[in-house]
What we know:
This protein is α/β, with parallel strands linked by helices. The protein has 17 helices and 7 strands. Strands 1-7-6-5-2-3-4 form a 7-stranded mixed β-sheet, sandwiched between helices.
Amino acid sequence: MPHAAAPPVILGNEPGSFPRSVLAERHPAIIRQVREAFPYGPDHHRGLDALLAACADGVIDPLPADAHDRDRWRVWGLDAHTGSSWFDVPWLWSESYFYRRLLEAVGYFGPGPWQGIDPFRPFKLAELEAPETDEELAALDALEGRPVEEQDRALLHGSLWGNRADLGFRLSDAGAEQRAAVPGLVADDSERLWELLPQADADSGSDTGSGSGSGTGTGTGTVCLVADNAGRELVPDLLLAAHLLAHRRCGRVVLHVKPYPYYVSDATTADVVDAVRKLSGARGAAGGRGRRLWQAMADGTLTVRAHPFSAAPLPYERMPDDLRAEFASATLTIVKGDLNYRRLVGDSRWAPTTAFADVTAYFPGPVAALRTLKSDVITGLDAGTEAALVAAEGQRWRTGGTHALIQVRE
Ligand SMILES: O=P(O)(O)OC[C@H]1O[C@](O)(CO)[C@@H](O)[C@@H]1O
C-alpha cells in the first residue's frame, strides 16, 4: 500500500511555487497565443475572455449541460471542484480542466464549423517543419550499420531527450532551450528496459542492414508507448517504435495519444499522421523508417489508441478497467514525459528517494518512465544523487528541463 504514505497532492495555491506560476502566468499566455494564431470570431473571443477572467480570479464553472463529456468529467471530480478557485484544487486537475475549457471556447467540440480545429496546430506544424527536425532526421544516416546496442541507446536517448522542450514549457520559459542538458541521467534503468525487450532469436534487422538476431526473445510481445508531445518528441518516439519492430524486440507497438489537443503540444492522432507523413517523405534512413512505420500501421503492428483517460485529470492509479487490461497484457509500457510521470507516480511532493517500484506497484505490468524533469515531482533517486543535485542547483534541477531519467519497474 505505498500510497497510504503519499504526501498531499500538489495544489496550485502556494505563493511563489511553480504550479502557481503555471496557472497564473502560463495559462493566460497560452490564451494570448491561441487568440493570435487564428482569425477567430466574436463568440470565440468572448469565450477566451471569460476563460482568461476565470483563470485570474474566478472559480471553476461546470461544463455546459449538453457537453458530450459532462458525465465523464463529473466522474473525474467536476462536481466536487465546481465553485472552487482554480488555485485550490489539485494542480493536475485544474491544468487539465483548463485545456478542456480552452477547447470549449474555440468551438473544438462543436457542433459548428470550428469543430476539430486544433488551436495548437500552427505551433506543432512549425516545429515539425523546423530545420532542427530535419537535422535530427539526417543524423539517422550515421547510425545505419552501427552495432545494434549503439542504435538501441541512440534511439532510446533520442526519445528521452525529445521530451525536453515541449511547447508549453518553452512558452513560459524562453531560456529553456538555451540551457545545456546534463547528459548524465539522474536515474538510469535502461539496461533493465532492454532486458525486458530481448531481440528475437531469428534473423532480425535486415531492413536496417544491421542486427545479429542472436537474442532470446520471441519478438511477439506488445509494447504500449504512452506518447507525450507531438513534433520533435513524437518523431523520435516513432523512430524508437520502428527500431523495436525492426529488431523484433516486440511484435506490436500500441501508441497511446491524447483524444484531443492538450497541454499545447501533446500528440493526437492527427499529429501522428503528420509525423509519419513527414518521416516517410524524408531522405535517407529516416525515410526508410517512415515507410516502414506506414507499412506497420497498414498491417496492424503499429496501432494508435486515443483513450479518453489519456486526457484525464487523474493519476494512472485510477485508470479504468479496459486500460488496465491493455497495460496488463503488454510486455512493457513506456510512459513518456513529465505530465505522464506525474500521473504515473501520483502528483505529490514525494521524498526524492521514495522507491519508484513502490509508487508504481499498482501498475498492472512492467512499466518504464522516460522523462526530462520539468516539475517538482520526483521519485527513485539515490540519496547521493539527490544531495549532489541540491548542492549544485538548489531545487532548480526539478523544473529546469536539463535533467532526465529512465526508470523501470518490472
Ligand atoms: O510535456 P511534458 O513533458 O508532459 O511536460 C508538461 C509540462 O507541463 C507541466 O505539466 C506544467 O504545466 C509540467 O509538468 C511540465 O513542465
